[in-house]
């Protein structure tokens, strides 16, 4: 049970290592909301998860007074709208700035993540080199986006962590773990000074520090994943 303000019956179905779950946990912590966290075994999904998200059958799912909200970015917007006076806003008040934030959060999910996922799944030095080369342009784009969105302040959200910070920041420990094994440096401070400095600020935020899994635990999980990925089909 996470501490915080009462918010009706609030449950979060998740998996501890998932960046998509991490971003929701951080948002709930920022908002100071009290909720029940239910860890899902993604190999044996619970009936509650399958009933709550019958379309994608994925985590996270936020259940508020029995009503499920699915997809992490949708959950973040729901939390912001359902508790507008609790904690910092996750989206800007200005309509244009809100649209811009939604655009970049979606870019993280649909463009950056899909490209970086190839690096994440790469097994050989040659595969990793090619995947790294292909994901760098998306990081270049995000470096420019940070300058646009932050307007010279600390976060994509300005003075406070916002939805774009949560979207990208939830991958930071994973990025560092993959870099360590792949021998890469995706958020190179010389090439991407804005993002490199932003990453350190984001990880130092209290709500992030509380909810972000330890790098060692992520590394252990990742190594296990690569072993399974390398195993011949049909092997367990």
TrEMBL record:
The keyword Transferase applies. One of its GO terms (cellular component) is cytosol. PROSITE patterns: GST_CTER (PS50405), GST_NTER (PS50404). InterPro entries: Glutathione-S-Trfase_C-like, Glutathione-S-Trfase_C_sf, Glutathione_S-Trfase, Glutathione_S-Trfase_N, GST_C_Tau, Omega/Tau-like, Thioredoxin-like_sf. Its EC number is 2.5.1.18. CDD domains: GST_C_Tau (cd03185), GST_N_Tau (cd03058). Residues 94-225 form the GST C-terminal domain. It is found in: Cytoplasm, Cytosol. This is Glutathione S-transferase.
